[in-house]
């Protein structure tokens, strides 16, 4: 299961300019059964995770990370910020105890001073820049400033008027902090740390932001968001927020500071008020995020300058206060069992070799039966899916309903298209799952069958002399007002589904 989950964060890299882009993970500790530091490191090594961010500088954790090569960002917790920001000596002691005592055995590469201080701890904002400078001075004194960067993570909410990105600016009330902070980052060659949460942007948009736009799902050109000032096209929320930060910095005349996203992710479970906090959406977001970062796509403002990113987070934290979703951002549970298996086919040459990773395309729960019927007819017709297993007397005929039959057809098309991005959509009535929908003698394409072999979806394309027409009369389920003419019209617009 370990390697199966991917070389997970494949902290392999895509080259961005002179630097390597990476995906790392945050390690929170609000678990009732927190694994020991050695267990945590064993999981990191098993998953080939090479970059981590700690929310503190726990000595046992730093000792466990020694001699692993894993690159570590340590943090000054917010409750220590006031003391460090008011005393150079306190800052030097913190660095001596939490950094100098552990390097070079532990590969500490960055220090995050506080977390979202401007929004979470505004009373400490006046000493924030002093804290960074004092920490940096201690590193200079130990000749460590060349290898360890100092910065502070910000909530993206400090950016106002964030769309279109070209109009974005930082909350002007924070200029007395942001201007000297940006000067510090620029002069020390550091980067802006930014927490980016498209989940919350989507939830708070009252339907303005489409779910697909938040999840990095492919959008048709007419659905892309366009910045009227720059004519740049945005296909996802993540890029738009990052570019908003770039534009906000340029508004203050800082154009050379790179961005590292210190937190992003999607919850896998929520309460009734959070219907989109699901396993499938969390899987989709993080899988697409990893692919996006490692493919060195960059953002529309800075193409091919990839944004290194830390996923929030390694473990589900059951002790976190707040809503159900707050406890369910993790990739693993406390036992090291993956909450879901990321579907990363097509993410790159290494990830594409993960042939054990099974993903399937199924009908979305609650989808309109009329839309399912139209998509089913397209898949079994123009989509060239071999749908004969759905005919009466054949293995996948039962259960005889449009949800079951469309699920088979959607998945067969998805597999024969090598799980290419955008081939599991069908105008929004299909979704990707890691649960094998096979049942009884009905073995779905892409499934590991009873003999342990994978059914190859590419073999499912019908031959030129196939007698299965996939016409509406074979697979149609009556819906009253949904007429044959409507089906034909939808089929003629088949491109809509892709």
List keywords for this structure.
alpha/beta; TIM Barrel; disordered N terminus; disordered C terminus; 498 residues; GH; Glyco_hydro_17; 2 domains; 9-stranded parallel β-sheet
Element layout with pairings:
Layout: E1 14-16, E2 19-21, E3 23-27, H1 37-46, E4 51-54, H2 59-64, E5 71-76, H3 81-86, H4 88-100, E6 107-113, H5 117-120, H6 128-141, E7 149-151, E8 153-155, E9 159-160, E10 169-170, H7 175-188, E11 192-195, H8 198-203, H9 211-214, E12 225-226, E13 233-234, H10 237-251, E14 259-264, H11 279-294, E15 309-311, E16 360-363, H12 369-380, H13 402-416, E17 430-433, H14 472-475, H15 484-492
Parallel strand pairs: 3-4, 3-15, 4-5, 5-6, 6-7, 8-11, 11-14, 14-15
Antiparallel strand pairs: 1-2, 9-10, 12-13, 16-17
Describe, in plain words, how this protein is organized in 3D.
This protein is α/β, with parallel strands linked by helices and about 500 residues long. The chain has 2 domains: about 15-355, TIM Barrel, CATH 3.20.20.80; about 360-495, no CATH class. The protein has helices spanning about 35-45, 60-65, 80-85, 90-100, 115-120, 130-140, 175-190, 200-205, 210-215, 235-250, 280-295, 370-380, 400-415, 470-475, 485-490; strands spanning about 15, 20, 25, 50-55, 70-75, 105-115, 150, 155, 160, 170, 190-195, 225, 235, 260-265, 310, 360-365, 430-435. The chain has a 9-stranded parallel β-sheet with strand order 7-6-5-4-3-15-14-11-8. A two-stranded antiparallel ribbon has the order 1-2. Strand 4, helix 2 and strand 5 (about 70-75) form a beta-alpha-beta unit. The longest helix is centred in the middle third of the chain and has 16 residues, at about 280-295. The chain is globular, with a radius of gyration of 25 Å. The two termini are about 30 Å apart.
